[in-house]
Amino acid sequence: MRDTVVLHPGLGVGHLVPTLELARLFLRRGLAVTVLLVEPPGTPTPAAARAAVANNPSIHFHTLPLPATDAAAAAAEEVEANGVDGKSSPPARDPFAVLHRANAPLRDYLRSALPSVRALVLDMFCVDALDVAAGLGVPAYLFYTSGATSLAVSLHLPHAQAALGARSFGDVVVGDGAPLRFPGVPPFRPTELPTAALDRDNALYRKFLRAFERIPESRGILVNTFEWLEATAVAALRDGACVPGRPTPPVYCVGPLVSGAGEVNNSDKRHACLEWLDAQPEKSVVFLCFGSMGSFPKKQLEAIAIGLEASGQRFLWVVRNPRRDDGASLVANDHQQPEPDLDELLPEGFLERTGGRGLVVKSWAPQAEVLRHGATGAFVTHCGWNSTLEGVTAGVPLLCWPLYAEQRVNKVFIVEEARLGVEMAGYDGETAVAVEEVESKVRWVMGSEGGRALRERAEVAKEKAMEALEQGGTSHNDLLEFLRGFDGDASH
Ligand code: UDP
């Protein structure tokens, strides 16, 4: 039986995408890979999971059957989760609770597969499975699907929270207003933290803190980044500065793990928006897309539309239906939502007036391919880490419009440290990003000297990303180092 690595991703597309890329790295090194799937109803995972299974015949997928839970428990999870991010609703349920229930079937599965299992690689949301691994003597590692800067924040957060005593980060905002200083991270405002972290008593925040505290119990942390990109954070993590008083396990930067990098899609089933891009001039199109869950109220969609029209630039815009309540929520947590009715959502005549130079795509576009297309010139992004890396590896400058989770910290990194993007002012306001801001930032990135400088830096980052993955590159070496750790393990 071939040596097997078992990967246990969190819920949601943003976790599954890099996990599959990591799986491919292991396959290329001659290992067998099992990816575990958990399919609670109501999360965005099932459709993505079905596609993953269909498109990856070399990977063995195993679905963990969740023990039946009574309706009351499910409802309680729902309520508890109401505020992954305070303002915005989370993916359907509390991911920690759902994945905790997967521990019993995980134990059964690992027992049955034990002789061949060399390592269990856990998503941050599955960190409680460290106990399952320990019980069976299976070496367990963490795979952090966001970047090193976000990891530096996460690992330091329990310490920083403890230093606040009975106060919350929300009190710090109201208090002296001084920026937070975390090792390896540019100074940032407390409001750049996930919103739940502003209230020390928020139930989900307590779960995050517990998970962050447990990450260093793993044998090592694989991070979806490359050393050049996040050198400051990587150094702080490796120096142990982020987790005072405890050892930090080895940190392996094995990225960028980006969907389909280097692949050319020759299939006949090319998405229509790629055909449209074929007809546009080189680097002329602004691409707007807000992750697998981001959505806006109708008012904000209208402001984007008017701003795009006024900018005079070419654009490709993925529009998702607003949440049913059409309130201030930023996350569409229901993938069963109907397709958006563009005539109803966008200003009258907008589609006709911009038809020659703009394309609106309903709900979903093949983002990674769009970004790699030669006609794409800039990316308005919610700063999800996969999106960020897809932009970086395509050499495209970023206009940052963070929405939820760790995206504001990612934005701080992109703007302040990497200088690969600028922010869309107003993203964090109670109201919205204004028409004028959309118009002027889009014009700026496409036509100004500052935009040109950003594009040049983005090109350098793209080159550095490729170098990192090549033979002898830092990410290639970190992967080999990680695999050598298996051989040093006498028990397996
Ligand atoms: N994505 C896509 N098409 C879309 C929206 C999203 O292909 O219309 C992909 C995107 O390329 C990325 C993932 O979904 O790989 C989103 O992950 P990210 O970490 O950026 O954000 P999240 O969805 O987790 O907030």
> What's the shape?
globular
Q: What class, by secondary structure content? A: alpha/beta
Q: N-to-C terminal Cα separation, in Å?
A: 13 Å
How many beta strands in the DSSP annotation?
A: 13
* Helix proportion: 40-55%
Radius of gyration: 22 Å
Q: Could you characterize what this model shows?
A:
Belongs to the UDP-glycosyltransferase family. Keywords: Glycosyltransferase, Transferase. It holds the Pfam family UDPGT. The chain is of the alpha/beta class and 492 residues long. Helix content is 43%, strand content 12%. The chain is built from 20 helices and 13 strands. Strands 3-2-1-4-5-6-7 form a 7-stranded parallel beta sheet, with helices on both faces. Strands 10-9-8-11-12-13 form a 6-stranded parallel beta sheet, sandwiched between helices. Helix 18 packs across helix 19 (449-469). It is globular, with a radius of gyration of 22 Å. The chain starts with a strand and ends in a 5-residue tail after the last helix. Uridine-5'-diphosphate binds at residues 12-14, 17, 259, 289, 291-293, 318, 364-368, 384-387, 390.
Spell out the key features of this protein.
single chain; 492 residues
